[in-house]
Structure formats: structure tokens, C-alpha cells
Amino acid sequence: MRKIIPYNKKLVPLAKKLRQNMTLGEVLLWNEIKGNQLGYRFSRQIPIDEFIVDFYCKDLMLVIEVDGNTHYHDNQPEKDRIRQERLEFLGVRFLRFDDLDVKTNIGWVVNMIWEWIERNGPTPNPSEEGN
């Protein structure tokens, strides 16, 4: 049974707005992971705890972040680190990709996600394996 992670309901309107204004990198990645294309359901712009993450798979407890230019200015890297540590404390796991990598090498990004799922995805129960 997966862990239920709380979220701030006040973030829902902002999450909806962010879904309507995704970056090109986020749109490209969303087109590759939506609709169970990787064998798992991902959601986009989802509130978790006090934060909104780019993509989240509940079954894997996996966040995928696309880091654009704003992630490299001022004290944003420190904010990202604190945010990630907080969510990891709640049991969430992270994959981060640079926006430029997503835009110029989406195949590599999707392959990295596939590899992560193969290494870290849930192990099927014996009844699910057909034993």
C-alpha cells in the first residue's frame, strides 16, 4: 500500500494555472509520459505538501522536475534543494532534468526515466507474476 502524502489545498488553483502555462520542455516531456505510456500514470503540476511539482507518479512515489533557466538564478538552487529534501523526507523520490536536455534530447530523457523505473519500480506480488 502506498503512502498518502498531504497537500495544501490552497495550491490547487495555482497548480491548475501552471498546467495551462507549461514550458516547452514540460509539454514535450508530458507528451511522452501521459496516458500510461511508461506503464504508470503520471500527473502534471501536482501539489504535494507545500509545493507544486512538475510531474508525479503516485504508484512510484516519483517526482520528475524539468529545471529551466529560473532554477539557476539567485538562491533558487538552494530553495530547490530544501524543497527536494523535504519531499524526500516524506518518501518521494526525484528525477531532475535540465530543460535544454528535454528540448534537445527527449529520447535520452525518456530512456533515463525507463531505466529508473526498471531499477526502482515496485516489485510485483507473486500473484501478479502468474505464480
From TrEMBL:
One of its GO terms (molecular function) is endonuclease activity. Residues 12-117 form the DUF559 domain. Keywords: Endonuclease, Hydrolase, Nuclease. Pfam families: DUF559. It comes from Ekhidna lutea. Transmembrane segments: none annotated. This is Very-short-patch-repair endonuclease. InterPro entries: DUF559, Endonuclease_DUF559_bact, Restrct_endonuc-II-like.
